[in-house]
Design a protein that fits this description.
The complex is a heterodimer of chains A (383) and B (151). Chain A is of the alpha/beta class and 383 residues long. Chain A is 32% helix and 17% strand. Chain A contains 13 helices and eleven strands. In chain A, the strands form two sheets. Chain A has a nine-stranded mixed beta sheet. In chain A, strands 5-6 form a two-stranded antiparallel sheet. In chain A, a hairpin with a 6-residue loop joins strand 10 and strand 11. Chain A is globular. Chain B folds into two domains: 47 residues, no CATH class; 87 residues. Chain B is built from two helices and seven strands; from the N terminus they run αβββαββββ. Chain B has a five-stranded antiparallel beta sheet, with helices on one face. A two-stranded antiparallel ribbon of chain B has the order 1-2. In chain B, a hairpin with a 2-residue loop joins strand 6 and strand 7. The termini of chain B are far apart. Classes of the chains: A alpha/beta (383), B mainly beta (151). Strand 5 of chain A pairs antiparallel with strand 3 of chain B, so a sheet runs across the interface.
Chain lengths: 383, 151
């Protein structure tokens, strides 16, 4: 095999709308605003866009978006499944399309009105018969219930505690408190608030859950050659991976032989195999955090520590600025905005441009991951 | 796939698919059965058309002892669908079967087959606790519930 995606493409533009519990604009308008902002950031005309990638859960399709922004002829379009598991794959698909000459300017986006819109789990009429028939009647209704089940077992097997989960929530909140765009910008968190907050699905409390958010984000991918002529410093797509492990069952991975070894492990093997560097060389990480337990599980999966060591890894400020691995430096899904993880991609780009509100000094490498606990994806970025 | 409508004030009923239907048919007879490959004998869950080990499409449904241990559990609190919110916080347990520990069934720990989902004192929920299956009739279906071995 001679073809490689390594550094063949770069993210040259990022854009976002405001994040709020309620925004008046439609998802379509928010998508267009984020995409146009990303193209303006890159200094590329909308008429040059010829590739689109988003999530299967994205309600705004490429036909509508291309028409609205005035794109030219589109030669590549792609949708990735599994909700937040698809975030990084949108960039990966565009990188593949651009590197192989199927397109020249790719846009990935996610627009979502989860703050003011309906909660998907309430629509029981569309619950899938499998695996819904094995879980929903018993009251496993929401993602929080499904991940809570894994979290309890993880705590039991490895001695993880609520204090470890608090370390994750606190690191994200501290970064959000420095980020004026974050929903939790002026809302500090304390250990007492965390420990006395209401339970959502015991052992997970309110602060173990991501934010209900309205908002949209987008980024622009072009070839490395083209990137050198763009307005912004290129952020190279160094390695990309998707992961759907053998005998995986999605959010309810309870029937796998080893439910605590999730899709992160599969994605990580491919991601590192294609890369020139390893976990020890990552300066900053944006790790998908729909729920706090996903961070220790991902730290293990992506090789920052050993199996069962993810909770202990969070001790001593390891995830904070100046720690072993600063994470979710915009505040993440827990405290910046929950837009199916797309804000983690853009935050990774900001870090490697050197313009994050919680800038890791001289950061040149960043891991971004998509939803753990579902078929997932990840990208390694470098400047 | 059959569709079953459930009123907003009732617990959700299982919506069996073609592969899962035998589980619910045996449950209606008070039997806990798990799909097994008729060729290599390996048990699998959730049910599916083909054995992932030997790729045989022949399957049979093997009766389990109905005993197991709690592998993990959660206690959901609102916001929840109304029928579940009315009983919250309740428990959902994951039971690893004594006959096949790699097969884990989601269910509820209750004091008796027809007791509410919140009938067991939360202090009694413990990973590793031994449980056995019972069945409750609801909406024309038999749904498994779980009882602690030691009361």
């Amino acid at each position: 095999m001679t073809a490689t995606l390594k550094d063949a493409t770069a993210i040259v533009g990022i854009g976002q709308t405001a994040f709020a519990r309620h925004l008046p604009q439609s998802e379509k308008e928010l998508a267009c605003r984020a995409i146009l902002a990303a193209l303006a950031d890159a200094g590329i005309e909308p008429s040059e866009v010829d590739a689109f990638a988003s999530y299967t859960m994205e309600e705004t399709d490429e036909v509508e978006v291309a028409k609205a922004i005035g794109a030219g002829d589109v030669t590549f379009f792609s949708k990735i499944g599994y909700g937040g598991g698809g975030s990084c794959a949108t960039v990966g698909h565009l990188a593949s399309a651009v590197a192989t000459g199927q397109a020249t300017v790719g846009v990935a986006w996610r627009s979502r009105k989860r703050g003011s819109g309906p909660r998907p789990w309430k629509n029981t009429a569309v619950q899938l018969p499998t695996p819904g028939q094995w879980t929903r009647p018993f009251g496993l209704l929401r993602p929080a219930d499904e991940i809570g089940m894994l979290a309890r077992r993880y705590m039991h097997e490895y001695g993880a505690t609520r204090d470890h989960l608090f370390n994750v929530a606190m690191a994200c909140r501290n970064r959000a408190n420095a980020n004026p765009a974050a929903m939790m910008y002026e809302r500090p968190l304390t250990r007492e608030m965390y420990m006395t907050s209401r339970m959502i699905s015991d052992p997970l409390c309110l602060f173990d859950n991501c934010l209900e958010t309205d908002g949209a984000l987008a980024c622009v991918v072009v070839s490395a050659e083209r990137a050198r002529d763009c307005r912004q410093k290129p952020v190279y797509v160094h390695s990309v991976a998707q992961g759907l492990p053998a005998q995986h069952h999605g959010m309810v991975n309870y029937w796998n032989d080893d439910p605590l070894s999730g899709p992160a492990w599969t994605a990580a093997r491919h991601l590192w195999k294609q890369a020139d560097f390893g976990p020890q060389d990552v300066d900053v990480a944006q790790i998908y955090d729909a729920f706090t337990p996903l961070i220790p599980l991902s730290l293990e999966g992506y090789g920052f520590c050993g199996r069962g060591e993810g909770a202990a890894f969070t001790e001593g400020g390891a995830l904070e600025m100046g720690g072993r691995l600063p994470v979710n430096t915009g505040g993440g899904g827990l405290s910046e905005a929950y837009v199916h993880g797309f804000n983690l991609i853009n935050e990774g780009v900001k870090q490697l441009r050197g313009v994050s509100t919680s800038q890791v000094p001289d950061a040149t490498t960043c891991l971004v991951t998509a939803g753990e606990g579902v078929p997932t994806s990840a990208i390694l970025l470098r400047s | 796939m059959t569709t079953t409508s459930t009123a907003a004030d009732e617990l959700l009923l299982p919506v069996p698919d073609e592969d899962g239907a035998p589980f619910w048919e045996y449950a209606a007879q008070g039997e806990l059965r798990v799909q097994a490959c008729a060729a290599c004998g390996r048990l699998r869950f959730p049910p599916r058309p083909c054995c992932p080990h030997c790729r045989s499409f022949d399957s049979e449904w093997r009766r389990m002892s109905g005993r197991g241990r709690i592998w993990s559990y959660v206690r959901p609190h609102p916001p929840l669908l109304p029928a579940y919110a009315a009983q919250a916080p309740y428990n959902v347990i994951l039971v690893e079967l004594a006959d096949a520990p790699h097969i884990r069934l989601a269910g509820n720990l209750v004091t008796s087959a027809d007791a509410p989902l919140d009938s067991v004192d939360p202090a009694r929920l413990r990973i590793g606790a031994r449980v056995h299956v019972v069945f409750t009739e609801t909406g024309g279906m038999a749904v498994p519930r779980w009882i602690l071995e030691k009361s």
